[in-house]
Task: structure prediction
Amino acid sequence: MAKPILVLAEQHRGEIADITFEMLGAARAVAGATGAPVFALLLGSDAVPLTARLGAADKVFLVDTPTLDAPVPSAAATALKTVQEQAQADLVFIGCTNISLGIGPILATRTGLPLVNFCRALRVEGNALVCTSQLFGGKIAADVKLPDMRGIVCLYPGAFPAEAGRGDKPPAVEKVPLLVDPPKVIFKQYLQPETGDVDITKQSVLVGVGRGIQTQDNVQLAEELAQALGGAVCASRPVIDQGWLPLSRQVGKSGLSVKPRVYLAFGISGAPEHWEGIQNSQCIIAINTDSKAPIFDGAHYGAVADALEVLPVLIEKVKARKG
Amino acid sequence: MEPVKINLFGVPGLALLWALTLIAFGVFGLRIWGLIGLLRQARYENRFDQFGRRLAHAAEHVLLQPRIFNERAIGWAHFLIFWGFVLYTACFNWSLIRGLFPFLPIPYPDEVKLVALFLEIFAVLVLAALAVAVARRLFFPPPYLHLSLDANIILGLIGLLMLSTLFGSAFRLVGEGGHSSLWTPFGTLLAGVFPGMAPNAARAWATTMWWLHMVGVLAFLVYLPYSKHLHLLASPFNVFFSQAATRPVGDLTVSGAKDDLTEGASKWQELTWKQLLNGFSCAECGRCDRACPATASGHPLQPQQIIQKIKDHMVRTGLRRTDKSAPKLVGEVVTEKEAWACLTCLSCMEQCPVWNEHVPVIVMFRRHLVSQGRVERTIQEVLGNLQRYGNSFGKSDRMRAKWTQGLPFKVKDARKEPVDVLWFTGDYAAYDPRMLEITQTTAKLFAQAGLDFGILYEAERNTGNDVRRVGEEGLFELLRDKNLDAISKVQWKNGNRVIVTTDPHSYNALKNEYGLANEGIGVKHYTELLDELISLGKLALKKKLTGKVTYHDPCYLGRYNGVYEPPRKVIAALGLELVEMPRNRAISYCCGAGGGRIWMEDTPDVKERPAENRIREAARLNGVQTLVVACPKDIAMFRDAVKTTGLEGKIVVKDIAELVAEAIEVAPVQVSG
Amino acid sequence: MNLYVLLKMVPDTVEELNVAADGKSLDTEFLRFKVSDPDEHALEQALILKEKHGGTVTVVALEAPEVDEVLFTALAKGADRALKITTDQTRLGAFAAAQVYAAFFKAGPGQITPETLILAGSQAIDDLEGELAAYLAETLGLPYLGVVCNVARANGKLIVLKEFAGGLRGQFEIGLPAVLGVQSAEKPPRYVPVAKVRAVMKSAKIETVEVGVSEPAVRLQLERLYKPEVAGRAQMLEGTPEEIAEKIVEVLAKQGIL
Result:
């Protein structure tokens, strides 16, 4: 029988993150081809009640040492290595997320396993696993072969269907006693983003603006359109970094994930970091001057045009429609 | 009459006059020496070349003062006061020498009939001018006129001098027996006011008037260099040394500089002496402020204040060295916001009657800020893009000629194929999606006219005109060197080498700051070229256009380079009726894009953006529905302003090339994605 | 503090990226390199720390196209030393690069002291093998944290902020020496004028360092590089801005928004 696949479940403050189900789904798909069992590893003293949600795994390992409550990469890697060795899992899935960033390389250094980052697709070729990764902001894809299905794969959020990784039946749970040395990186506290602003995750229409919007004044135009549509404005990282909109409006990695009915993207190129946050929108309409912008590969509708030319006309037409 | 033969409390008049003269000239001399000492601490700049041209320039603008008449009423008043001052200064010196050396065999000036007549006429004219000036200050002060005590004191003093002359003349007539004289008409008139006065008393009064006049002038002399009226002494030199006398002001290069000026000025000593002389010459008239679009739109910048603040700061820290609490020149005396607000549109310099040079000073401050990395985020990004890709858009340099892809013909690469004309499109015409179609249209016009032209493809760089005015001198030099290198590779077909530009900003840099004339390369704006092609019949107009249009003079084409007529001639040739905006040609109102402002954010201080103000001006014209422009940045700025002012449907913004294309029926080109 | 900033060169994505004939590398015809964005933030954070707490900033890079300019720029910004390791970066994965840097810090001029803080960019756009900072920290046995957005020093320790998601940040305390992967500095990277860089190019020197690492093991078996096939291309709305706006309105209506 093939060696097990071990998925590092990602939980944050009592919630299982979607990436966990995506990884379990991906692991199940690989297991379907190889017959390998799928194991999940859950960390932290508050994670016990969460095991039930990991039904897609054949077994859940639980390390509930309080030291692991804090999201410190080296500590997580220690637990991961222990379980990986114990379960003889040569294939490990980790989320390509801010929380898990760094765990993979640490584990790779300690185990000598190769690591593939930014993975968006997997396929089994004979005895090997071929990972497709996106590099250079999604402009180039790379196929990397992991012979004998040995390796650590960091899976990109949103690249695999989460549904395939949800299971109802409560999985077998194995507690792993483990003493993790207090890490040298000491977690102190969480700092909440300033609240009081619009919650963009709850909007049915979002007008997203990116670097192509050029100036702060033009954010006003987007704001006007959002108001006319009864939605809100959000932005990709460059716009937030400019200070044109508050942090609470950032979408993508480091920002929020949104699921509006319509997402209008103005001047957003669609780098993976942003795409990650908008991909679950029901309908994405993208306007960008660059016909080769990656956003057109994922959006439902697209137009090669200057956002600044379309916005004013669109505002007018929407207002006219609404009366 | 011998006014010095008096005895005041036992002091002989002659001794008194000597004493007063020595004190007054001593105090005056020391102050002037001190002020010149300040200028000598500044950086060197060679403004001593081309003496003849400078003298001619100074003669015109000091003696005739054409700029002062931009504001008519006060212009006349100033003109009369100036010439009155010249006459009175001459006569004062004459009178003083005669007074100090009573043995000299010459009369007093007012004893010469013709001189007396002129003195009287000018006294009255100057008094009338003073009345105008006082009334203006009291009842119709224009905006940004500095209403200082200084000004009132000086007006009072001048009045005193004039009245002492007239009354002196009257008393002298009475003292001499009351004969009327045609040589002293106003003295005669005034003498009638004192019919019963005894001749002795009248002679005493006449002497008093003489002393009053002389002491008044000596007091004036002392007061002058401590007040804004230093203007009187400094401004003729300022005009003489002005850059415009010898070379275009569109060239920011400081000639003969002995210091490295790339880091600009953080203290007054780091400005050039000519930049400091500005302050001594300023009369606080406020014309620059009234012309400044940054001031008008609510930015915290007033060009006059910049000049004044430098002067005050310099005098405070330079002459009174004990003052340790002095604030920093850049950042405190002149705030960063002020320095960044300037559009470098040249309106201030165009208006300044004493030919002050505000823009170069502001650029010196910006250079300092840039050297400290104190630059707005958006500008940083643009400068980074320009360094790396040679364009402000941050696009690949290889995409520069992408606009040519929609053309039915291939545009020559001037580095590889011989051409007559090198077309320098500039960033906006090549990269801004709003401009591509216009650029293609222009290319078609050139082709239709049989022009043998080419472009530099990816080798063209932003000329750095605005980079230089943002204060990134090193980057300007880098861009210039790269462009010059590319231009040197151009295969010219014959000796008549011409570069044509779309962008007036590039035009200015290429024409004035690249030294291309030395290479025998002429620089033309595309409106100049279109005008030529049409008048030579090379561009045959197939149909006459009708309707009224107005035209916006781009700052860097008009004020900077004096190209006012060619675009107007093109418009006329097309059959269009040109209705001028009230602010046209040299007083054209900046669109707000210059000096790198197009890359900066507007602060909340801004009430009305310059482009909005301007588009409203155009829209107010009766029957005009088209604003014709000749600058890619104007297309961007004004099309935007049409939307933000809600003037859509009332006015459209068109490039002059689009209109020409309509008249010769070049089919519009579809922009390819 | 002895601050070390590791700078990495990455392909400039403003230029179009093409795959070379071997199918395993990028076509070099139009390829240009620039310093990885987060690395610029790492440098900025280091300069800020130096300004606040004193110390020296040493920038280190491996040999790569256009890297000299980046190192000179770092010097112009305020770095005290610039070192270039002669190993070719473009052929190395993150793991191998970490081994080179580890050798540099263990035996080379970069001795780790109790005051050493190594800063690198949190992640680069071509980190196919994962993040350099994490590899290096683990190899050197030093504490590590990535996605860092602020570093301060208090009572001899570092107070570090890490970004999670949705604007949430975590505060950590880390003792020195340490390795951090910086996502963004507390302030945007500073601008350095061209004249200053040019002056530095004349006055300063980049020190080259040889690090004795036998050809680092290739860990990943790269099958091929290619332009991603477009899976679901958007339905394109064509026309003038006016027409496009009209079509968007129709879509909005169809989605029940209007």
Residues 13-41 of chain B form the longest helix (29 residues).
